[in-house]
Structures are given as structure tokens and as C-alpha cells.
Amino acid sequence: MYGDGKNVRDWLYVEDHAKAIDMVQEQGRLFETYNIGGHNEKQNIEIIYTIIDTLQEMLPDSDPRKKLVSRDLITYVTDRKGHDRRYAIAPDKIKSEIGWEPETMFKEGIRRTIAWYFDHADWMANVTSGDYQKYYEDMYQNR
Prior knowledge:
Layout: E1 8-10, H1 14-27, E2 41-43, H2 44-58, H3 92-98, H4 106-119, H5 121-129, H6 132-141
Antiparallel strand pairs: 1-2
């Protein structure tokens, strides 16, 4: 965790983001800029707590990983110099011109994201082992 963990970011579920991009491509004005934001600003430390709490809820008691998931995992490191305390997006134009706004509540998005990683353990194993390039080639070149 950088610094004190109180840096603020606007969080958005990936499928909401993808839908916004699709809607801009289909309905947006050519050469126009549309900010995509979730009106969902949270401190980084809140995100970490939410992930830990959600993992505790989702992992069955029989899963040995559950005992390893706690706030004790958080390691604080010195924040980089000049790191912005807050990033903010004003997505008003994309809502008014295109009608897009996020559909997924923050905690549900975290839950879906964690579930995706659980469901794709093979992908995770390849990415974390350094074998992703081979995995990628096997998956996409053999189609």
C-alpha cells in the first residue's frame, strides 16, 4: 500500500467500462472526448479492506487459503514523490449525450472480479509462473 492508503481513485467495474467504450464507438460524436467514470471515489485502503472482506466471505471454511487472507497481508511502502492524492473523472457528458452510466455497484463488481479469478485459476497459474506467453500462444494460435 502506497503511503497511508488514503489516495482516492474512481472505481468502475470492467464490464461497465467496456460497455461505455462500445456505446461511445456506436453513438459518440467523431473526434469527441468522453470521460468514463463511476461516481465511485474510494480511498485505496478501502479497496484493500473490501477485497479482504469479500475473499473471507467467498472462500469456504474448508479452503486453506481462507486462513491466510487478513489485513496482516497489507504492507505499507513509501509513496512516490508527486503521486496525486486524488484522481477524479467527470462523466457527465457521456451520460447526457450517450446515456451511459455504470450499472454495477462497487461491492458487486469486486465480488464478480474475484469470482472471475477463482474461475480462471489456470490462467492465473500461467500468468504468475511466467509461462503466460506459452499459454497465450497455445490458446490463440491453435484456433
